[in-house]
Amino acid sequence: MKLNYKNYEIEVFDEPNYTLNSVDNLRSYDKVFFEGNDAEEKFQPTSKHAIIVKEFGKEISSAIICEIGGGTGIFENSFIIEDDKIWIRVCNRIYCLQIPNLDLQWSKELDSATVLEFYKIESDFISRGELEIKRFTRNGEIVWSFGGRDIWVNTKGKTELNIEDNRIRLFDFESNEYVLNFDGELLEENPNITRKETKKWWKIFD
Question: Per-residue pLDDT averaged across 128-151, rounded?
Fold first, then answer.
């Protein structure tokens, strides 16, 4: 994805074929970020997202972020650019980099599995992880977190996280509905109760 910000053209894209510590990559990056725990992980990150900053058509900085965790791609709500910073989710973490030099400001794990997307909410952000919904500040401080009955992925066409005026409407995998206020307090909970067919007495042993 490419977008313009001030005098800069910023490109954010997936780089699946990039290999850490290899001289055979098609391109190199000024900065390489990775939070792997050991040497083995350093060669097998799950997701690799790259950022290139150009000014008047000339590349002035580049970075690649590699992470272990649930795989992620680049699409709308994968990153936010404001206030000379880019916040981007990679696997289960959020990274904040300075623009235009792409220096790391902070990174933090926001879900134990995967951060699927995140949005602006008042002066903060709210993330939809696979397991938890979290509100966090622009400095990476977690304000609150909320977990449902199931994971935050819905296969029935319902929008998992929707911000409506001063409320947050959520649907989990089983289409259970939750309504929170911006302080993370549960206002409504509507379980999806699926009625099971009662067998006739003569079919009990079928």
Answer: 98
β-bridge mates for residue 168, sequence order: 163, 180
93 and 122 together in one domain: no
81 and 181 part of one domain: no
Quick one: 58 and 14 in the same domain?
Answer: yes
pLDDT the model gives residue 44 = 78
Q: What would the two tokens of residue 4 be? A: 């313009």
Domain boundary among 43, 76, 109: 109
Closest CA to 64 of 5, 110, 140, 11: 11
Q: What's the rounded Cα separation, in Å, for the pair 56 and 36? A: 35
Q: For 103, how many CA atoms within 13 A lie in the half-sphere containing its CB?
A: 3
Residue found by looking up tokens 């949005």 in the block: 119
Per-residue pLDDT tens digits for 150-206: 999 999 999 999 999 999 999 999 999 999 999 999 999 999 986 444 555 455 555
Whether residues 86 and 118 share a domain: the answer is no
Last residue of a domain, which of 109, 129, 156? 109
Nearest Cα to Cα of residue 182 among 169, 171, 195: 169
Residue 139, sorted as left (phi over 0), alpha (psi -120 to 50) or beta, turns out to be alpha
